[in-house]
Design brief:
The protein is of the alpha/beta class. It contains seven helices and 14 strands. It has a seven-stranded parallel beta sheet with strand order 1-3-5-7-9-11-13, with no helix packed on it. The longest helix is centred in the first third of the chain and has 34 residues. The radius of gyration is 22 Å and the shape is globular. The N terminus and C terminus are likely disordered. Its main location: cytoplasm. GO terms for molecular function: tubulin binding. Belongs to the TBCC family. It is found in: Cytoplasm.
Amino acid sequence: MESATAEEPINQKSSFDLSFKTKSKEINDMLIDIENKSIKTDNFHDILQKINELQELLNDSKTFLPAYNMKKCSDEIKDITKRYEQLHVKLQPKKKFTFGKQPTRQPTTPEAKAKAEEKFEPISEPKVYKEDCGFKNRSDENHLILKEDESFMKDVALDTLTNCIVLICGTPSTVRATSLTQCHVYVCATTSIFIENCKDSVFICASQQLRIHDTFDTSFYIYVTSSAIIENSKQLQFAPLSLKGLILKKAFEMAKFDESKNNWKIVNDFDWLSSYEPSPNWCEIPEQERKQPYEDNMLLYLYPALLNQESIFPAGYYDNK
């Protein structure tokens, strides 16, 4: 009996190696076919689903897989995801989205047209960087906003921000947040979010994958379809994302996420591989202590014309908030 028990992890690893190799080859072959135009770009959704299945296979194997193999496979998934994103941006037609209603009737005179544009056009935003898709070296700013047409299928970068509130409308492909301190970030990314060297902040976010490195004393209200991965991080808190805010709710629907399939409780700590004791580096936020901030107060900054309306929210919208 002892011999059979000792051999079990070896058999599990062999089975994992075969499954992982088969699935990763299938994804790479599909990417090659799309690149060679052998199959339609409609298959992007199927490929993304297979990437998520590959990530879930790795997550389910952490109890018996050595740390070296975990990292090696994780890096391979990262490379596949990057290749997928590059092809998706290159081959898929880009669409632009706008938040809120646009006037249905065109003004008939130049004066009326100018007045209408002043009423409905969002005010101009601060300068961004990395091809107009991110913010860098900012402090004490409460309205760092990327609109939907600025973020759609882009790689958004947030770098060296202190005491800022960041709202990314719409659906960027990926988001990288580096060196943020005392910040609030609202975002819904269609693929992955990478957070590094952040502290004393709050992330309200949705994505397929979430990776957190070198981050401390930070809270996460998240939706994730695979799992969150943390490394060299401490004092992290997690809770499920609530979609009471209108802006993130719209982005969530645009990304076609399923609210019932949120794996926010699955947090893989690469510095804590024990399956018998919980990691000391993160915890769930008790339900009675969850105080997710909402982004709707930034609507008036995006659309000043709303100040002239009694309310854009349905009756009872703020009840139970």
